[in-house]
Amino acid sequence: MKRRMMSLLLGVTLTATAFAAGCGSNGTNPEGNKGTEAQKPAQDDAQGDEKGDAPQASGGGQTIKWLTFGPGEDNWEGLTRPILAKFEEETGIHVETECYAFKDLFQVIETKFAAGESDVDVCSVDVTYIAKYGTSGYLEPLDSYFTEEEKALWDDASYSAGVWEGTMYAAPENTSAQVLYYNKTLLDEAGITLPENDAEHRLTYEEVAALAKQAQDALDPDRSKGIIGLDFQQVSRVYQMNMLPNSMGGANISEDGYTLDGVINTEPWINAMTWYQDLVKDGIASQGYDADGVASQFYAGKMVFIVNGTWCRSRMECDDELGCTYAPCFEGYEDQVATSTGSWYFGINSRSEKKDAAAEFVKYFTLGEGSDMWLDINGDVPSRLDRQEAIVNDPDALPEMKIAAYEAANTAYPRAVTPLFGEYSTVLNAAWEDVRNGADVTEVIEAAIDQYESAVAASQN
Amino acid sequence: MQRIHIKKKWLPYLLILPTTVLICVFKIGPIVTSISESVQSSKVDGFTMVNYKLLFSDKTFWNSTWVTLKMNLIMIPLQIVVAFVMALLVNAKVKGITVFRTIFFIPFCVSLTISTVIWRMLLNINDGVVNSFLGLFHIDRIGFLTDKRYALLSVILICSWRGCAYWMMFFLAGLKAVDTGLYEAAKIDGCGFFQRLFCITIPLLKHTFLFVLVANTTANFLLFTPVQIGTEGGPLGSTNVLMYEAYKAAFSYSNRPRSSCIVVILLIIIGLICIVQNKALAGEG
Amino acid sequence: MRSRNKKRLCAAALYMVLVLIAFVSLFPILFCLSASLRTQQDLTAHLFPFTIRSLVPETFTIQNYIAIFREYGFLKPVWNTVFVTAVTIAGGCILNALAAFAYTCFDFKGRTVFYILVMLSFMVPFESTAIPLYGIASRLKLVDTYAGMILPAVADGMVIFLFIQFFKDIPLSLVEAATVDGASWPRIFCQIVVPMAKPVFITAGLMIFMSQWNSYLWPLLVARSKEIRTIQIAISAFSGERTIQWTLIYTATTLSIILPIAVFIPLQKYYVEGITAGSVKG
After folding, report:
1. Which residue from A minimizes the CA distance to C184?
2. Does some domain include residue C54?
3. What is the average per-residue pLDDT within B144-157?
4. What is the pLDDT of residue C95?
5. Chain A residues 126-185 with CB within 8 Å of chain C
6. Nearest to C252 by CA among C64, C80, C76
7. CA-based nearest distance A428→chain B, Å
8. N or C: which terminus of chain B has fewer CB atoms within 10 Å of its end residue's CB?
9. Rounded to 5, what percent of chain A is helix, strand, coil?
């Protein structure tokens, strides 16, 4: 018995030693010899007890990994499952999803791709990061995987947003447009009818705010029910918040993409941020919820107005009647309507060892049957021209889809283009959140300019 | 103590091999990497201080340094005083004290990650129970983690809720080691409670105080979790501690040199703290 | 008479302070437990204005616990944490004890140099090197593996130090007598040293337990994927994904608190002795 214990102990020690020695040979010499023989056993040891995802050799039965956003059954993870099943049925390629919350995804991409990991094959890429990932060599050029005819199937704006310096790095999953949704049931209860409006004669933000307050006063006079008047689905994210200064004629970033000075310390930004801050101060817009939390309040029937993407209808949880109309404009800026656009793209990891399978999947999801399924499931605005036409020609299309088609063609305002979008969005997302929480607007803007400036200086080193 | 000389010369080396290799790879390796990354630049060949120059000319870095210092200046005295008082209390010889001792110890079992997740909900501006409770006294809802005035304090409170339980145990161990005869003698001499506290207990616990001070400082300089989960460095950079800035540089901006510079600076600070500790303890004899 | 009153008053004051601190210590945990046993509607509906119902559910339900395991697969992170912690404890206790044994009992060339390495790793906290460590772990293909979480935590200067402190007190004559009897070294270690050092093994195990159970930054970098992540990461991610389903988050946190409390309350003494060993006498 004791002898057995001993040999066991020694065995453990020796294995651990061999293991450690294997690692050491590489670790103490960080620059050199990747994947030496000495490391092999350690590697096998490390992964042996984990999962049996040994890579298969040929097309059928392959498994690729898709790094994406939206964990949970009611989010992308669950919603895309039928598409992945169908894809596997047709091609034999199994797609494994790895989902992260919005803010985590960018860090995971940065961590993995900068380190040159090869375990991820396909990656969901937010449109604004394409320039950055392209420049950093994270993504595989897709020009050899898509023919010119295939590229012509997307609308030009969607296609070109996936191109950086002449190379196509990403394929559009769909695009997006902003719609002003309202909870009709709540408005009725409050005895409010929405004034007539159309694309040419929009409601103003000021009007909507006043209506929202009126509804709150009627429904929740002592504010104990926590009914929110008006809010933005992507609160404290540049994607949607920047449409406020844009709607007053403010730009997102300088032409070269490297400075905010002279861009955000201007009237449109100061006025837009101040207007939004007052909206929060007056208790019309919320505080303390993040983007997911805010939207959930609307879906649960606890918010009157929300500026949201077209996926809103599919996410509703309460039975309240949903209405929608064109996104508002600011009073005095009726001719400067600007709405956010752009959405998610697919990119292929430049280190992936299964690029062909990955490309097949990307094509399926952006042009093939998977794309059709996805647009139906999530109610997104299509990037494909044939689907856009179908909406225009379909008299029964949902009202928000008609609105979205109009906005995409007329008021869509492109996001900041810069290889430093990570820095840009980190700095400005924080700025919007600070404004929301009552910090002095000019102080916030000055701090944001400084931070972005030092980030630019650091990156050019 | 004398040690044994053995014939099998290789034996001790075999015994220390695993840990030595692991320490080299996972401890010394990263230190060497950060130092070398921090003095290299893609633009300049060989050794360069350009990364440090950039860092030192950056307001965000100085703000983070200031935040880190400020946090330590508030948190450490707070934790030491509270932990010491807690230790004195549970050292009292009254009925049921062991129960209290165990209860006081419990927050320490909750990891800092979980504490932050819990407190973030308790302190939330919309549905936080703390704000709900304050409503009883007609206090308006407070954005504990979103208001510039309260965010750093809230982070400090979250850390201290757990931290005090931890440091209390050190003081308690120190108190247990004090010779009770000294107290009895002092009592007979007519010394009051406070007199005994300041004239006997605290001087005798000098060593423990020093240890807690140093260990606490080291831990706090590397504080990361409550900031990453609770405030993301905001509002207006008011909780943007150095560790979080290093993390952001490395994993949001992929700016390794900047992150390495900050890590090296933190290592230097910790090194200095260790030297001070050794000096102070040696001086004490 | 008066002094007796005064004493009573003192005792009453003492108990009041004790109860107050106990309340602050326990409140978040008890609130978690209570919130985990109610529905989301029940929780939010009763928050404002503050009443007893804000704290205590109207009706109890274990629905959250069922959901957290069935729908959100929380068994996996719990298992991951237990597995990673257990392996680290086993590896850490054995390897560190062996090294400490060598440092205490044997004289060998280069001992001081190696010992300085150990001391260095004792003084440099793990968190400070986690960020640069990622590059190394990535080159060693340790990202998203259990080994990535375990290996860097195994060798611990503090644990070696602890073992050395203890082994110092083992009478050398005992060891020497055994050698004279012709006992082999592994045998001496297992039959003489280990049995004497049982309490210190418990202490070391608890120290490793605590550092693994607590670690956040490192697993956040090295083991973020769903298959592999520990409960710390799972909960932090979960609270970012389900930003308003608080009862579920409260449930997850309650679950993650139970085990450490169950381990630490009975073994508290060993742990305290371990961590305070260096602080009282130096």
Report:
1. A6
2. no
3. 93
4. 94
5. none
6. C64
7. 11
8. C
9. 50, 15, 40
Query: CA-to-CA distance for A276 and A292, rounded, in angstroms?
Result: 19
In chain A, residues with a C-beta closer than 8 Å to the C-beta of C227 are 50-51
Whether B126 and A226 lie within 8 Å, measured CB to CB? yes
**What DSSP designation does B201 have?**
I
Provide the residue type at C31 as one letter. Answer: F
Region B227-231: mean pLDDT is 90
Higher pLDDT, C20 or C197: C20
CA–CA gap between residue B151 and residue B73 (Å, rounded):
16
A243 has a pLDDT exceeding 70: yes
Domain boundaries, chain B: 57-284
Question: Out of C143, C154, C237, whose CB is closest to A117?
Answer: C143
**What pLDDT is stored for residue C34 in this prediction?**
94
Specify the pTM.
0.86
In this predicted structure, what is the pLDDT of residue B141? 87
Q: How many domains does chain C have?
A: 1
pLDDT band at residue A356, thresholds of 50, 70 and 90? very high
pLDDT tens-digit readout, C229-238: 999 899 888 8
DSSP state of A368: S
- Residue A48 predicted with pLDDT over 60: no
Look up tokens 């394409």; give the residue.
A130
User: Within 13 Å of residue A268, how many CA atoms lie on the same side as its CB?
Assistant: 23
How high is the mean pLDDT of chain B? Answer: 88
Query: What does CATH list as the number for B57-284?
Result: 1.10.3720.10
Chain B residue numbers touching A30 (CB-CB < 8 A): 29, 33
- Asked if A378 contacts A401 with a C-beta cutoff of 8 angstroms, the reply is no
Interstrand relation of A63-69 and A94-100 (parallel, antiparallel or unpaired): parallel
Domain residue limits at C181: 77-280
pLDDT confidence of residue A53: 42
A303 touching C (Cβ < 8 Å): no
CA A182 to chain centre: 23
Task: Burial-class residue A213 by CB neighbours within 10 Å (0-12, 13-18, 19+).
Answer: middle
For position A118, what pLDDT does the model report? Answer: 87
Euclidean distance between CA atoms A383 and A393, whole angstroms: 16
> Using the beta-carbon criterion (under 8 Å), do C217 and B225 form an inter-chain contact?
yes
- Cross-chain Cβ contact B3/C107 below 8 Å: yes
pLDDT at A4: 46
Q: Minimal Cα–Cα distance from A299 to chain C, Å?
A: 12
CB-nearest partner of A73 from C71, C187, C240: C71
Q: What percent of chain B has pLDDT over 90?
A: 46
Nearest chain C residue to B166 by CA: give it.
C272
Give me the domains of chain A, ranges plus CATH numbers: 63-175+343-406 (3.40.190.10), 179-340+420-459 (3.40.190.10)
Whether residue A296 lies within 8 A of chain B, CB to CB, comes out as no
Looking at CA atoms only, how far is residue C146 from chain A in angstroms?
A: 7
CB contact (8 A) between residue B12 and residue C160: no
Q: Using the beta-carbon criterion (under 8 Å), do A28 and B50 form an inter-chain contact?
A: no
Q: Which of A148-157, B130-139, B204-213 has the lowest mean pLDDT?
A: B204-213
Question: For residue C117, what is the domain's CATH number?
Answer: 1.10.3720.10
Give the count of beta carbons closer than 10 Å to the beta carbon of residue B65: 16
User: Which pair of structure tokens corresponds to residue A114?
Assistant: 């900068």
Q: Which amino acid is at A361?
A: F
Task: Classify residue C61: in a domain, yes or no.
Answer: no
Does pLDDT of A378 surpass 50?
yes
Size of interface B-C (CB pairs under 8 A): 280
Minimal CA separation from C251 to chain A, in Å: 17
Is the Cβ pair A454, B258 closer than 8 Å? no
Interchain CB contact of B207 with C (< 8 Å)? yes
Question: Residue A433: phi, psi to the nearest 5?
Answer: -65, -40
Judged by a CB distance cut-off of 8 A, whether residue C148 touches chain A is yes
A36 reaches C (C-beta below 8 A): no
